[in-house]
Design brief:
mainly beta; Baculovirus p35; eight-stranded mixed beta sheet; five-stranded antiparallel beta sheet; 15 strands; 38% strand; globular
């Protein structure tokens, strides 16, 4: 992965034991890369992650931004795609999700079952032992992104074991390394949890609800938090 900028993440609790995550960034790469998002899933559930195809809503985050009348000033920490390694049979199920192929890896031990096209380095997780009880949503573009390209958002719903908490996957992993601090260029969005400034109107006023596929609650406002600068490298969790 050569560069990643303008990372935007939407997360929302459903109230039914699951959480939505929508993730988009501007990236540049010279070869196929895989995006690995560790999430605190309910264990021993092979369908704990359900992928959502938002190819028809590439402007999802642009529309969320429209709900805020002025540019944000709040400053306050991201993940980057990991370069793509060899997998073993039997392969985990792979789904076509718009411009991506995607797979859910239930545990660290299951990385050996990833389809060979993902080519992921598994040793990186030895640096972050806290993820041994996590599952992993893995995305890879079907084609290499052009310089400065922005592709449609990646999205999924997962059954969370962090009841009462909202989870944003913001840990950075660069070139197979996890550093204590990293440069952040992230905007976090949510509904129903106070994380920062909030839109004066409900989401249905500025979001194309028919394209959002149930990810956004049209009756609720949207909250936003900016994570920018050289920050502690970790996932971001808020009490719901």
């Amino acid at each position: 992965m050569d560069s990643v900028t303008n990372t935007r993440i939407f997360a929302r609790l459903t109230g039914k034991g699951s959480q939505f995550v929508v993730y988009q960034m501007r990236w540049q790469a010279q070869k196929p890369v895989a995006m690995i998002l560790p999430v605190p899933v309910v264990q021993d559930k092979p369908d704990a992650v359900r992928f959502i195809n938002l190819k028809g809503y590439a402007s999802f985050f642009d529309d969320l931004k429209k709900g805020f009348p002025v540019a944000p000033t709040t400053r306050s920490g991201g993940r980057t795609p990991a370069p793509a390694a060899k997998a073993a049979d039997p392969a985990l199920p792979v789904e076509e999700v718009g411009d991506f192929v995607a797979s859910f890896v239930p545990t660290l031990a299951d990385f050996a079952r990833l389809d060979p096209r993902f080519v992921l380095p598994t040793e990186v997780w030895d640096q972050v032992p806290g993820y041994r009880r996590y599952g992993f949503a893995v995305f890879q573009l079907k084609a290499v992104a052009k310089t400065g390209a922005t592709v449609h958002p990646m999205a999924f719903e997962f059954d969370t074991r962090m009841h009462g908490s909202l989870f944003f996957p913001t840990l950075h992993i660069h070139d197979g390394m996890v550093h204590p601090r990293e440069d952040f260029d992230h905007t976090l969005y949510t509904q129903g949890v106070a994380i920062g400034e909030r839109t004066p109107q409900a989401a249905e006023k500025f979001v194309a609800m028919d394209k959002a596929l149930g990810v956004v609650d049209g009756k609720l406002p949207v909250a936003r938090k900016i994570l920018k600068g050289h920050l502690q490298n970790r996932d971001t969790i808020y009490a719901a």
